[in-house]
Design brief:
mainly alpha, 5 strands, 3-stranded antiparallel β-sheet, 131 residues, 2 helices
């Protein structure tokens, strides 16, 4: 019976760390077989060594992760565009409201002026009649 040369990296608590199989330093990294029958402790430094072993890269996971990152960037870009449009729309609405208020003020000024003129005419006519 042979053991497959596939190992999974597991982490254990620092209190449960044991000596590295290679250098005997305390390590919390454990390489274990998929069926959990065999294991050995190894330092993180040894895991980075290209001569020691190489990770199995799942292409589907990498592609899914890349696609998710692209989608997140696209969502952020669309959100920013939407916020900019909303800011422009608010500024435009505010400008229209100010313009409308200024027109109302002008109309109100004209109405007030007309009322003053009418009142003055009325007072003049009252003086002429002799009230």
């Amino acid at each position: 019976m042979s053991i497959p040369n596939i190992w999974h990296l597991r982490r254990v608590a620092e209190t449960a760390s044991k000596a590295c199989y290679i250098c005997y330093k305390p390590s919390s990294s454990v390489l274990i077989t998929p069926d959990s029958k065999d294991y050995f402790y190894v330092c993180p430094g040894h895991l980075k060594d290209p001569g020691f072993g190489s990770p199995i890269i799942n292409e589907a996971e990498v592609a899914a992760k890349k696609k998710k990152e692209e989608m997140d960037r696209e969502i952020e870009r669309v959100k920013k565009e939407y916020e900019e449009k909303q800011k422009k729309k608010k500024a435009k609405d505010k400008a229209k409201a100010e313009e409308k208020d200024s027109k109302i003020d002008e109309k109100g000024d004209k109405a007030a002026e007309k009322a003053t003129v009418d009142k003055a005419r009325h007072l003049r006519s009252c003086w002429k009649i002799g009230y």
